[in-house]
Amino acid sequence: MGGLGDVVRDLSKFLKIKGNDVVVITMDHDNKISNLPHEKIDTIPLRYQGTTFNFDIVKTSHLNTQVDIVAFSNEKINKIDIWDPFKYHLFADLVLFYLDKYYTPDCVSGHDWPCGLAIAECHEKLDIPTTMTIHNEAFKGPLVDYKGLTLTFLELGIHFSDGFNTVSPTHAEEIKSIDFIREQSKVKPFHGILNGIDIEEMNPGNLVNYVVSYTNNKIDPRKLGIFISDYGVGDGHIVKPKIKYSWFWNFNNLERYIEEWNDMDKTSITGSDVEIYGNISCRDITVPLIGFVGRATYQKGFDIIFQAFSELFEEHRLKLIMLSKGDRSIEEEMKNFAESYSDNVTALIGHCPPLVPIIYAGSDWSIVPSLWEPCGLTQMESMVYGTPVIAREVGGLRDTVISLNPDPIADPNFDRATGVLFKHYDKYGLKWGVEHAINWTFYRLKDIHLYISYSHSSCPESPYDKNAPLSKFIENCYNHVVRNLSWQNNNSIEKYKGLFGGAIYKHYMRYKP
């Protein structure tokens, strides 16, 4: 389930590391859980609107985190679209049955609208403390009548929770403008708790293993003759342009890899086939490459990407690589855009997780021009691979990206910056962000040297020189993620434990006069 799935996986892992007993409860989407080695606990004959559905309760452990997973499996229901509300009407009753018979937790934590009805029923029918995490309040689920209320799934979960949160401090303040959120925040704990990434799993020193292991060791790019190498802060400026050249400037390599990926059996992994449009092959390594990875929804800024880059291609030498899947109309626009600017754009339409770190590692900058962004993981993932981010100053993007100052000659912060933030959601804002980024990392190297002292170093002649600004960005990005944005170090796990503790306290104290 994309970023939501990543967060739930990592959150449960680190809660367990901190000594908590954690069980993840889910539906068996596309048989992903039942295809793993598992134990069958029980079969539930669930009656819903006159029809009986038999669900197996299957239990397994996550292959990497070892967190227990309980899933409800019915061959027909498993194949229904993952976001179909019908699934989550059933899910609420299934959760109730399992928790009532097999497992009594101290607190039940629901994530996004699919869990809303289940949270309401756990609170009301089982009298269990509950919390609700909002990953994206724009998607609320269907309206439902419950206990005399007519609310969406998400609103039900919030209303009947003992505490709730969203996934960044800035976004928590942004959504308080919504009447329902503001009123609920007055009567129960509400916090903005920043997401993070697992730097044990995702880091440039683990690049090769991540890419190879994700395909169950069935595709090794090195055996296809494609350069890929682990790297660190000290040699990122050397290795990253080699990855850029091997995967994207030498376009045949990318095509070969995707052909292998498309031929692969994906029943036991997450991913889909990928279609390729456009060809950004190039000889000049100093032409900037901008990367984009994100779900194909209007929230992610596709309209201003198409508008801004149509003009940027006319005014600058640069290339754009995009990997996305989602809304069919946006996928079609990506295809048309790549075909219109086939020398400047490569659009990869599909879901290919092992390609994600390759795009970050090979790009000079990445873009996250979201209309809104509760937190976002893509900017953190980009930065951990040493790739600075051009992002809109909104939500979690504002909380995680340290922006290069507008005039870095008068007020230089090359020693801290991890990207460029722009304010206005239009083509002009994004254009300014891209131009500001490439101006100070590709074009004005000599101007920078006149104003900034590089200790014991000569003026950089290439963007990839060790003493060039881009090399400093690489170092800043990685260090910022490790120190401030990783689950290991950002104290968000402790804040979640505080949220759960506050919910437990509120739930039981309500009985006292």
UniProtKB/TrEMBL annotation:
Keyword Glycosyltransferase attributed: yes
Organism classification: Archaea, Methanobacteriati, Methanobacteriota, Methanomada group, Methanococci
Protein name: Starch synthase
UniProt KW NADP keyword: no
UniProt keyword terms in alphabetical order: Glycosyltransferase, Transferase
Enzyme class: transferase
One Pfam match: Glyco_transf_5
Glycosyl transferase family domain sequence ranges: 288-434
Starch synthase catalytic domain residues: 2-179
Annotated source species: Methanofervidicoccus abyssi
GO MF term list: alpha-1,4-glucan glucosyltransferase (ADP-glucose donor) activity
InterPro entries: Glyco_trans_1, Starch_synth_cat_dom
E.C. designation(s): 2.4.1.21
